[in-house]
Design a protein that fits this description.
Strand content of chain A: under 5%
Strand order of the largest sheet of chain A: 1-2
Radius of gyration of chain B: 25 Å
Order of helices and strands of chain A: HHHHHHHEEHHEEHHHHHH
Number of strands of chain B: 8
Helix content of chain A: 55-70%
Oligomer: heterodimer
Largest interface: A-B, 76 and 87 residues
């Protein structure tokens, strides 16, 4: 059945799948957000341990989702993988660097003789949660602001700045994107703590942190939204594949795809609702609204970048080198084969949800951290 | 520009080798120890004996410490295909990306999901579900090995694809040919069984240390018996799959086999070199001897390579310069064909740009005639088709010699364990302890054979590493190389210190 689908439908389907994985990753950055809360929320060693152990049971899911996001882009849009990773070399290297630091920090922090000391590993986590997410945000921002690269006849990339992607972080829109993601992650991290930890003073502080961080995120969100509806965008002529600058392209995309506008508004509303019920109404379920909202906003952002005849990875140096979901994708055969593989995703999501429910059925307490399995704790 | 690209390639290779070699310090232990921990926990669940639980948790702690840094180095490898090998990523991403994505969907999520249950679920889930989770971590870890080795196997023996001249890339034509390629199957069976062997050496080695120190003797002997049984079975499997893998190399990558044996001039009834000192100044085509000293076993290489002790095995000279008598087309001749293919591809692309359909059709016809040797067109000298011989030869022989030693160690452990005198065999326990380190040497040597032995190819015969690399100034890659070198070394030192402390504390802590 999948084999009968039109090539362009498969290309759109795979942009959707990659968008879903990317959006789930944004939700799961609550782990990174939680890591940055170590230094602002915890007032003693016990509270710090509670935060780290709460996040430590989920860090691998975030990490794996990032790896899958990379794998899905490689398989479905190899020209993007080659162009962005090879060209914006330093941005991706620094992002990866922060994720290496994260991967060892949970396991090593509390272990005796860990060479660098617990505080160093806590700083590593904070770097991952702040610098790592900021740079990911800046990289996503370039989907709208573009990058300085060109492709030759053989699609080999040449990057036209010596900074290899770091220049993206200096663009105000990209910077706002990165900072918004950092504070959104902190909002989600605080919501997850409220949901998962049984500790009165820490939970109270986490409730407060949800709306404070949302307030800090608002100017960045507004910068992004105003930027999106006012900036010129990179459009594609469907018949020829020629790329051209279109005035108000992303506003046109929003208006031309009402479902995307709905996703964006519903997503933002859901995040705000999650913060309100967590921060002001004393509920513990805000993370689910925040998470759902983040996924919806993520889907809207990726849809704006890739659908409605839009170049999702624009080139400022050579417009015709810009990448679209049509010129950057794998062959029809590969997309078809991968679509059959993707049928397993609901099953994967189902067992993750089941295990999540089992493991989070009881809240994390100080008693558990000091109990008979204390040596296993992070 | 040419010099810059050459230097970039060198740094990119160095960085990828560094990452891969560090990664492979941790991964084989993860692959094998996950199963050993599952065995230990299964015995605990079946017997209800708390001592087996303590034993399980001890090895699980060491597993967790090792696992984290394996994950950290693994993510770099995936993304380095894009950052350092961007031309490769475009040219073969249509085929190579799929196994990586499948690895994420089918394997990594199993590991990530059940890892948390394994470590923090002792009191949150039932005993049975906890055991199930431990087994799932083992299964997930090994499933991830399947797909990355499918990808690696495809690079060594590209099948199930065709070149698309319009896109200037290779595209997948048959998923099952890629997934079930015999090279991929051999890679998986040989690599995972060697990982089981290493993990067994790890458990036997650490347990032997306890016996030498007269600490935790009961737990140590239990661990040694389970690990020695697993290790011995794995050793036999390693030998059988190793033989199959070598046969496969002989059929599909004859240049690699010639380098593994330092064979320059092909011969019938070819000898295998049991021990030898390579003449490292020898170059393809010259008259210098290949070895300063060599101990050879006649006919064995022919038997290993072709299952016929009288058969002809081509040498490096035959594969570089050709051998008419044995109908071998050498790299020298393939370079001529490859350069025609490249020129016609360029003419085709240019004609398409200009809209000159007649010229495009003619160029494409000529390209199709010559595209089988496309990769050779990028070489400047036929001798470039030969890999570094000394590195490949010594790595292969170190791996084989050590691989022969390990089953003997396991058998001796089992013999004395059943005699009940294991703790009295000081010499054996010392040998077990040092075998642990030799196991790591064998692992690294195996990958050096696989990867150095296939140089200069990123994709065998189709894409040399020099073309596969990213167009970036070498200083960038040089800087990240040293950043990773410093970081990985610091983390490795931290890991070793933490491991040593945990071993010192022992299972009773």
């Amino acid at each position: 059945m999948i084999g009968n689908l039109d090539y362009s439908i498969l290309q759109q389907l795979w942009w959707l799948i990659a968008s879903v994985v990317g959006s789930l990753f944004l939700f799961l950055t609550f782990v990174q957000g939680g890591q940055t809360l170590i230094f602002t929320l915890a007032s003693n060693e016990e509270e710090k341990s509670l935060i780290i152990n709460a996040m430590g049971r989920k860090w691998e899911l975030t990490f794996t989702t990032l790896v899958l996001f990379g794998g899905a882009l490689f398989a479905a849009f190899p020209l993007f993988y080659a162009t962005s990773f090879g060209g914006a070399y330093w941005v991706w290297m620094l992002i990866l660097f922060t994720f290496i630091l994260q991967a060892v920090s949970y396991e090593y922090r509390k272990k005796p003789d860990n060479v660098l000391g617990a505080r160093t590993y806590e700083i590593f986590m904070c770097i991952n949660g702040s610098v790592g997410i900021l740079l990911i945000g800046a990289a996503v921002g370039t989907f709208f602001t573009g990058s300085r690269f060109s492709l030759n006849l053989y699609n080999s990339v040449t990057w036209h700045t010596p900074y290899h992607g770091l220049e993206a972080a200096l663009n105000p829109f990209n910077l706002a994107f990165g900072l918004f993601l950092v504070f959104l992650a902190r909002v989600l991290g605080a919501m997850y703590l409220v949901n998962h930890v049984d500790h009165k003073s820490l939970v109270e502080k986490a409730r407060k942190a949800t709306w404070i961080n949302l307030l800090i995120a608002l100017p960045f969100l507004l910068t992004i939204l105003i930027g999106l509806v006012t900036m010129d965008g990179f459009a594609v002529e469907p018949a020829t594949g020629r790329i051209f600058l279109e005035k108000g392209k992303y506003l046109n995309n929003l208006l031309g795809m009402p479902a995307v506008l709905f996703l964006l508004l519903a997503g933002l509303g859901s995040v705000i609702y999650g913060v309100v019920v967590t921060g002001f109404l004393g509920k513990n379920c805000g993370i689910w609204f925040g998470g759902l909202g983040t996924v919806l906003v993520g889907l809207a952002i990726f849809s704006l970048a890739g659908y409605n005849n839009t170049a999702f990875y624009p080139s400022l140096s050579d417009l015709q080198s810009s990448l679209t979901i049509y010129n950057a994708s794998s062959s029809k055969y590969t997309l078809t084969a991968m679509s059959y593989v993707a049928l397993a995703v609901p099953f994967v999501l189902a067992y993750i949800a089941y295990v999540w429910k089992l493991m989070d059925a009881e809240k994390l307490t100080l008693g558990e951290l000091a109990g008979q399995d204390a040596d296993d704790m992070y | 520009m040419g010099e810059d690209i050459l230097t970039t390639v060198d740094w990119a290779r160095a960085q990828f080798a560094l990452t891969a070699m560090y990664h492979w310090i941790f991964v084989p232990l993860t692959l094998g120890l996950s199963f050993l921990v599952a065995f230990f926990e299964s015995i605990y669940v079946k017997t209800g004996n708390e001592e087996w639980k303590k034993l399980t948790k001890f090895w699980m702690t060491l597993f967790g410490i090792n696992f984290a840094i394996g994950v950290a180095t693994g993510i770099i490898l995936e993304f380095e295909f894009g950052t350092n090998w961007s031309n490769y990523s475009w040219m073969v991403g249509d085929i190579f990306g799929a196994p990586l994505a499948i690895e994420g969907i089918f394997a990594f999520f199993i590991e990530a999901t059940f890892f948390a249950v394994m470590f923090f679920g002792w009191h949150r889930v039932s005993k049975g579900f906890h055991l199930f989770s431990t087994w799932m971590v083992a299964v997930g870890s090994n499933l991830s090995a399947v797909w990355i080795l499918v990808a690696n196997g495809w690079m060594q023996f590209p099948v199930g694809m065709a070149f698309n001249p319009d896109k200037a890339r290779f595209e997948m034509q048959n998923f099952w040919e890629v997934a079930l390629s015999p090279v991929a199957v051999h890679k998986f069976t040989h690599t995972t069984s060697s990982a089981f062997l290493l993990a067994s050496l790890f458990v036997v080695g650490i347990s032997a240390l306890f016996l030498l120190q007269e600490r935790h003797q009961k737990m140590a002997k239990r661990s040694m018996v389970v690990a020695a049984v697993f290790g011995f079975i794995a050793s036999i499997f390693v030998a059988v799959t190793g033989d199959e893998a070598a046969f496969s190399v002989a059929q599909r990558q004859p240049m690699k086999l010639a380098a593994m044996e330092g064979l320059y001039v092909g011969e019938e009834k070819a000898s295998i070199v049991a021990l030898g000192i390579i003449n490292s100044s020898k170059k393809p085509g010259d008259v210098q001897p290949a070895f300063h000293q060599a101990l050879k076993i006649p006919g064995l290489l022919s038997l290993l390579a072709n299952r016929d002790s009288d058969s002809f095995v081509p040498g490096i000279n035959d594969l570089v310069f050709g051998n008419v008598a044995h109908k071998i087309i050498g790299a020298e001749q393939r370079m001529v064909t490859g350069k025609i293919a490249l020129a016609e591809l360029a003419r085709y692309k240019e004609a398409r740009e200009k809209g000159d359909e007649a010229a495009a059709v003619s160029a494409l016809a000529l390209f199709n005639q010559h595209q089988g040797d496309l990769g050779y067109g990028y070489l400047n000298n036929p001798a470039e088709a030969a890999p570094p011989v000394a590195t490949t030869f010594y790595s292969f022989h170190i791996m084989v010699v050590l691989g022969t030693l390990f089953p003997v160690i396991f058998l001796l452990v089992l013999y004395f364990a059943f005699k009940g005198t294991l703790e009295n065999q000081r010499w054996l326990n010392i040998a077990c302890f040092f075998s642990l380190f030799l196991g790591y040497v064998a692992q690294q040597a195996g990958w050096v054979v696989a990867e150095v032995g296939r140089q200069p190819w990123a994709i065998q015969g189709l894409l040399p590493v020099g073309v596969a690399t990213t167009n970036i100034a070498p200083g960038n890659v040089q800087t990240t190389f040293f950043i990773f070198l410093t970081l990985f070394t610091a983390l490795l030192l931290a890991e070793i210190r933490i491991m040593m402390k945990q071993i010192k504390l022992g299972p009773e802590a």
